[in-house]
Amino acid sequence: MNSAQGSVSVIGGGFVGLTLAAHLLQKENQVVTLVEKNSAVVDLMKNGKYLVWEPGLAEILDKAQSDGRLLISTTLNGLQSKTYFVCIGTPKPTKSNSTNNVMVEALTEIFKSIPKQSTIFLRSTVAIGTTNTLKKLATDLGRSDISLFFAPERTAEGVALAELKVLPQMLGAAEGDSLVDGEKELESLGFDVVTSTTAEVAELAKLACNTWRDVIFAYSNELALMGELRGVSALEAISIANHNYARANIPLPGPVGGPCLSKDAYIFLEAGQGKVYDSVIRSGRLINDSIAPMLISAIENAVKAQVEPILCIAGLAFKGKPKTNDMRDSLGIEVLDKVKSSHSTWQLKVWDENISQSELISPIPRCENESDFQKVDVLVIANNAEFFMTPSGEKKLQALNKTAVIFDLWGVTKNLNGISAEINIFGDGNWVKYLGK
Fold this sequence. Notes:
- By secondary structure, the chain is α/β, with parallel strands linked by helices.
- It is built from 15 helices and 13 strands.
């Protein structure tokens, strides 16, 4: 069961699949087939456009394509690999569709298509119990010959290739499959492996990683939200609480979005089937979800006397550091969408030097030069991208009129000079005047 010098297939051409493929291709003589159903995306990838910004990614994939070691396909038919990594994104579960349903649908096709005696590693985030549910599905479909393992991805966008080289790969085996064999396979592909006694333990461990971070950030955000409601600086309170006090290491507040943290709490809770206690994880997610509505309310109050205010959302990716072009579940996009649907007379603009116009789903005008910024009434800084702190970025913020209002969710303006617009940093307690009585 050794694919180190053979062919491996990666199913899913998003962030997880592309970075994994690039990692595997750094091993000499490794051949990877990347399967992506979206034919338009496949055409782009074959022409060196991978849609995911990750340092070094394009160079690795381009060279592998040129060398014939990276094959890109829209279909599973005809694949001869014996090792498959399933990197299909799992959505936030809804009342009508669970995470399990999404995976069952996808794996049914895979089980029917791949060769005998194949091995599958699930990289997707799933609810507890999913791996064994899928193993039973394979058996019911007459594919008990397939070995199934849960080996989740847990890298951070912007540093994924570096982390894939050093992060331990969690691994759990489906019931009846050999954990030792799965461990040997991953080790042969260059992974450091940490095993769990069951697949359910590995599934819970993956969910623990993201839900822990979500709850920790929610704690800071609750402090900030309370500070804004009471006109008290939570930022100062956190600084004082942390100062030379080893038992306090409270992070700074800020939006918590992206394709993982925004949904993994709900995937975790799905396993409870409504029988779970009062959940700190659910409460934390609701706190983080409440930032956007509070921000929109503040914006509405800031421009309530204007008929056609100009609102600029600055920073559309869900985070600024490390740099990424991933706009999934970002605060900036959420605010844009909600304001667009409820305020038809408002003029909406965007500012993001990390995202091109072609990457935007709808053609929203951009703020590009200083004259554009002079006309803005409200500017929202929705992530902490480096371009805000460059001389060019600082000049654009300085061009804002003194009657303009800045809602800075990340505190990026605190070290910038010469800004005449009113600055409201999240957590500093200044939003109270915009939140109504």
